[in-house]
Amino acid sequence: MHFSNDFQTFLTLADAYYFLGYSLIPLLGDRDPSRPKVPAVPWVAFQTYRSTPTDHQTWFEHHKFAGLGIITGRVSQLVVLDFDTEATFNAFKTDYPDLLETHTVRSATRQLPHLYFKLPPQLTLPSQKGQGIDLLSDGRYVVAPPTTINGQPYKVSRGAMPKTLTERDIRRIQTFLNTHKLPTASVILSAAHTSPQPQPVGRPPAAEDLHALYHHLSATRGRNEALFHTSLFARDQRLTLQQTQIALVSLHSQQKIAAATVKENARQREREALKTIQSAFSRPPRPIAPSLVYGGGLGRGFAFLTMLSDQLAAAPH
Length: 317
Description:
Elements: H1 6-19, E1 23-27, H2 53-62, E2 67-71, E3 78-83, H3 86-95, E4 104-106, E5 113-118, E6 128-130, E7 133-136, E8 141-144, E9 148-149, E10 152-153, E11 155-158, E12 163-164, H4 167-179, H5 185-194, H6 207-221, H7 223-236, H8 241-253, H9 266-280, H10 302-314
Parallel strand pairs: 5-12
Antiparallel strand pairs: 1-2, 2-8, 3-5, 3-7, 4-5, 4-11, 6-7, 9-10
Helix pairs in contact: 1-2, 5-10, 6-7, 6-8, 6-10, 7-8, 7-9, 8-9
């Protein structure tokens, strides 16, 4: 894989993004295919003040980092709708075709749209996650061109300026997100009791299920507690140490650190994650009542996992 002179492409686009008012961070990109979307530098500070052309030159000319991210939210006056499924995007396109008339980037892996919108300073639209859609605002970032992942580039598919959101636009986006919420525990349990087909019992949770539980716990307990208790759950559900590390280490290392004074590089955060997961696996799995065995399936297990989180976290480690 050749990277000669790539830094000039990154510098050119970084400067263009800078003049649009965006705060940027470098990502590892295809220089580290196992973690291409991971920030290459600590990025908490860039959520409150914008990176500069000098930063960009250091990152892309001197260090030759191979990915670029735009921090969303107030620092860049930018929110992005990131679609994870074609069905969800088609539903949004049908309901709000006018909101497609904005700057659009096609993602590298799923080849689905990222819709960019300008967020006026007097309006608020927080980060949210739904079924097949992720709204990126404060505390998040979006992978941007010219980043490539596994040789597949992020590409601008519609080069217009980002549409400036109005209060009405925000209400409509929020309405769409509300209709695509991740299912609640009551919905999952109701569906499980009324389904004519028995749900499989004892299926190991997938990585995306661990991600869902981690994000749920992060919102209420902080990132370190979330990692520990999610690792306990994985251990109790008979996932291996290696499976759990693959699922959670990269995820945890990308999370925002609450205290801006904490200075950690990506390698330090990975070591922290490995140590925490190892601690969770240092004792044998806890016995779990049959009613708490993960069955997978509905809603990819998210609601079921969130329902269990308090009970599992309260159990002896």
